[in-house]
Amino acid sequence: MVQQEVRKGPWTEQEDFKLVSFVGLFGDRRWDFIAKVSGLKVAGDSLNRTGKSCRLRWVNYLHPGLKRGKMTPQEERLVLELHSKWGNRWSRIARKLPGRTDNEIKNYWRTLMRKKAQDDKKRREAASPTPSSVDSSISSNNHAVDPHASKKAGEESFYDTGGHGNGMIIGSTQQQDQGHGQGFPMDDIWKDIDFSEEGCNFSCPQVPSPSWEYSSDPLWVMDEESLFCPMSEPYFSCYAQQGSVSLTG
DNA sequence: AAGTCAGACAACCGCAGCGTG
DNA sequence: ACACGCTGCGGTTGTCTGACT
């Protein structure tokens, strides 16, 4: 059989829909399996994505517990705090922020650092108009992950500053919670699913579902200290609302 | 109104770790 | 003990969108 081309790039609504369906059937662990099975035109047509791609899409976008929207000041503070503790351990940090993904936090941090780097640069230029060397602090590869190492004063990569070592206060004025305009397309997807499959429960397909038990969801299952309770948050309520999906068509 | 820029978000890639045969 | 396959993580890049000039 000729291997179909693996699709890349942005996901379409249909793909999302299919992925959600497959995850409902097989759980959110067996990505390679899902990718393979879905490539075999099981559900009408195929989803020619790699397991990796499927996982990423699910984790970062389709997962029902995701918050989306701007970080709250509390979350921002927590990110700084944890980053200063753990460095670029995004997934670990994300576990402390229910509803946030490592990707989201990573992006947030990156934006923050870029902004900071720009500010620094401006300030330095204003202070001493010496050319060159000005942005040495951001250009070179200070990518050490260890927050305790490699942090010299005034020298951090814009990507990894090791947190607030330099008095960076994220008082952030942006408190808007989520929602933030864009009509979160997942709602539509879930709605669609809901509509088309009324009456059947997503969370308990007849298939011996490996890991669809969200009480122990890996995403925000906490490690060691101070556990957040994933059940308390949008996570579960979200499921209560959206969880009715079936795949047995 | 059009063009530019910056921020936010989405997605891919490479690598490391882990489980299994 | 080793090879292999799969999953997860971190880094990076591309795209979209809203704000600003």
TrEMBL record:
Q: Which residues form the signal peptide?
A: none
Protein name per its UniProtKB record: Uncharacterized protein
**PANTHER family named among the record's database cross-references:** MYB TRANSCRIPTION FACTOR-RELATED-RELATED (PTHR45675), TRANSCRIPTION FACTOR MYB48 (PTHR45675:SF7)
What CDD domains does this protein map onto? SANT
Per the record, its GO cellular-component terms are: nucleus
Where is the protein localized?
A: Nucleus
The record's annotation in Pfam families points to:
Myb_DNA-binding
Return the Low complexity bias intervals.
128-140
One GO biological process term is: regulation of DNA-templated transcription
Q: Which residues form the Myb-like domain?
A: 3-62, 63-113
Q: Where is this region: Disordered?
A: 115-182
List each copy of the HTH myb-type domain by range: 3-62, 63-117
Keywords noted in UniProt: DNA-binding, Nucleus, Repeat, Transcription, Transcription regulation
Give the organism the record lists: Flemingia macrophylla
Stretches with biased composition (Basic and acidic residues): 116-126, 145-155
Which Gene Ontology molecular-function terms are recorded?
sequence-specific DNA binding
Q: Which InterPro entries match?
A: EOBI/EOBII-like_plant, Homeodomain-like_sf, Myb_dom, SANT/Myb
